[in-house]
């Protein structure tokens, strides 16, 4: 398994000193390069330039990154230490202002520090790291649980269409949408994954196809506009995608192009599944129309000189097009009522 | 207007000697470069690498290319000349398997050669060129007629989605799918064209957006996977695309991604129009399932090392998803019965 986000011990068995170790995803698929980081500026920069991406992976990296930078704080005062950790957390939080898991993981680490009520600073440093490792461990458990709940949807010789990257490179372990595929593969099942290249940033062809192929899973890269034809040819038995935010009624936001795939799947009578941790569910939103759609830089798309570009990064798939939502708690069928 | 395919006289007023002159579309939108060709290998290569593309433009280029290469045949025997022209035509015909206009234009030139019953070879060379120029002239007339029959579908402030390039760069003149837009623009109507970038070769962002913007028409480039979202946002009033081959029942082959757009248009209640010359209609095919789909080089898509690629260049939109087919003869409504 790819170790997208991990803690690297620098002195054998002891947890500290250590560094945040991440795969530099900007180098994929050409090179598998690991970065070992313990300086706040370089960690913020790595998140900003998408060396680590995918909501769960960003959360894990932020928590481990906070522990890695906090170990160097020189003070004997617990109060002073916590204040400095808060400053570091603010810097990390500013790296991706829209990533909910980032704030969630940082807040959880800070709350733990305050709650554990320890005056010894070196022990506080350890507590910060233990909480980060717990976040990573829970993420790994979440991935495995989604895999177990979803793997039986994949029959022998199935064709699966996926979009963007909700895989090992987006999480601490097996991924979300890709986790049922890894689980089915571990059981020796044979199937083929069609991976949309996912314009404009090509996470499908650069990341999903690369990680599945590396794991020995049969994968075929297609352009986004080939999905309908591949469905029409009978190559696809199910669609499985991740999600960035799910409303209380099951409407699910995900990478641009997902909604179109759901319409195409319905037209071809193909089941359409969303796989995501429960932390992705935002029950404060009654429906998907309340999920803001981020419009990104036109330069990502690339256009002829003087031509306008429209570059929405996400779309929302209405619950009526979703056959099932797989979380770490199980496979949810419609109608969806999350709270 | 862009002169995508023309005959270039080499000696002032006389038609011969001359060359096929085409815009090298592989260089767009960065540079507007013209190629002048009269050698069979370079013309076949230019068609194969898509320096000239778009079914009507390929037909014109093949006919003019046949005349350009045939002028160099050294023989006094009409029989021998025609046999050698047939050999050249076979080489040209093998350059692209799906575009019926290619075969149509070559057959028409050959039939004309045989039918005109001339024994003087230099006169035969002229006849071959005259027929090619007639094909080009008719293509220009065809484009204008499609524009006239289609422009009233475009209301003031309409949003139009198009895919690939069925414009001036795909024909001898105004294009097919884009011709109604040029015609409406000439009448001072204001509207916005959403141009799919059209992976893998980006004819939409490189060619369609470039040529519409150059003509002063408001155009927005989107990634192919954004079409569903743009429709959902209410930005699209109609879809207008070209076609490479139309079966007797109206099933229409066009650039990969077209079929998916037709499904999305139906889901959103948006009319979906195909614009193409009658030369695109292949009444020998009862339905679209008989249209061969060209599978192109995986390298066009680009994938991680070791990952398979599926790269169908076309798909077939069933007649039931097509609101109307615009030819030079008028707007045809379903049910379609071409012969």
What can be said about this structure in brief?
Chain A contains 9 helices and 15 strands. Chain A has helices spanning 40-48, 55-70, 78-93, 100-116, 121-150, 179-186, 203-214, 227-232, 258-267, and strands at residues 5-11, 14-23, 34-37, 159-162, 192-196, 218-222, 238-241, 245-247, 252-255, 272-275, 281-282, 308-309, 314-317, 324-327, 330-332. In chain A, the strands form 3 sheets. A 7-stranded mixed sheet of chain A has the order 6-5-4-7-10-14-15.
* Cα separation of the termini of chain A: 33 Å
Strand content of chain A: 15-25%
Strand order of the largest sheet of chain A: 6-5-4-7-10-14-15
CATH fold call of the largest domain in chain A: Rossmann fold
CATH architectural name of the largest domain in chain A: 3-Layer(aba) Sandwich
Shape label of chain A = globular
What is the quaternary state of this protein? homodimer
Structural class of chain A: alpha/beta
Unreliable residue runs of chain A: none
| Count of discrete structural domains of chain A | 2
CATH 4th-level superfamily of the largest domain in chain A:
Translation initiation factor eif-2b, domain 2
